[in-house]
Design a protein that fits this description.
The longest helix has 122 residues. It contains twelve helices and no strands. Among the domains are: 79 residues; 123 residues, no CATH class. The protein is mostly helical.
Length: 348
Amino acid sequence: MNPESATATPADPTEELPPGESSTVAHVALASIGAVALVALLTSVFLWQKLSSIQEMLARQSTETGVQSVQAFSNAKQAQELARETAARVAVYEARLSEIALQRTQLEELMQSLSRSRDENLVVDIESAIRLAQQQAQLTGSVEPMLAALKSAEQRIARAAQPRLTPLQRAIGRDINRVKSAAVSDTPGLLVKLDELVRLADELVLGNAVAAAKPVVPVKRSSTNGVTNWWQQSWLVLRDEARGLLRVSRIEEPEAALLSPEQSFFLRENFKLKLLNARLGLLARQLESARSDLVSASITLHKYFDASSRKTQTAAGLLQQVQVQMKTLQLPRVDETLAALATAAAGR
């Protein structure tokens, strides 16, 4: 095989076809090219129309969006103005409502003051009467004024028949029972005992006082004994006289033994002053001061006066009774009634 013939370029097929067939193929190719071009043209037209419609739709939507934004802005402004007007109206309404509430509160207070004026006057009168009775009881040392004021207050509350005063009535009843059951010492009786102690002060025997001599019983001479017993009678007389010359006594406190007559006078006066100070403290209701004066007087009595003397023992007994009664001299308090009165006056 010839290499040149093998490497030669192939011939055009149309050249090999006959003339009628070659024209047919050309027409088919042209028709195919025309169809493709037509399809491409139609596609471009369709795409162009679609793009135009999309652009129109976007433009319309953009226009609508702008219109809606303008409307929204105007609506927002209207809403803001409406909100401002609403806030102003609400403020006006709140001011009016607060005025109405204030007027209502004032009206309620006026109605309550009109309805409770009688009860409040009753409470004020009762409180004044109880406090005055308490002062009288402190001055007199007797619970009778306080008891009378509490009973009168209980009767007035019972006549008023107000439910809001029921706690006050119960408190008054409890205080009445407390005052009745309280053991209070008799102040006039204490004053009498103190006066008796002051009177006895001048008659008390000091611890260093010289004991009184015993009376000497004269020796009776018997006529039957004769002259032989004269020396025995003389001895008895001498013995009795010797006993009268020497007297022995025992003093427990050394301070009492060292008192001079002038100091004894001032000691008695000081003892009486302590008793008088205790009496004044009792009258002034200064119980602590009166108790301290009585304790000082008791120490003085037992330290400087003769404990074996009958008058000293009497004074010591009276002083002890006064001290014991002073412990129960505190008057009962009516704090529960006063607290209930304060609650009722506050309107709770």
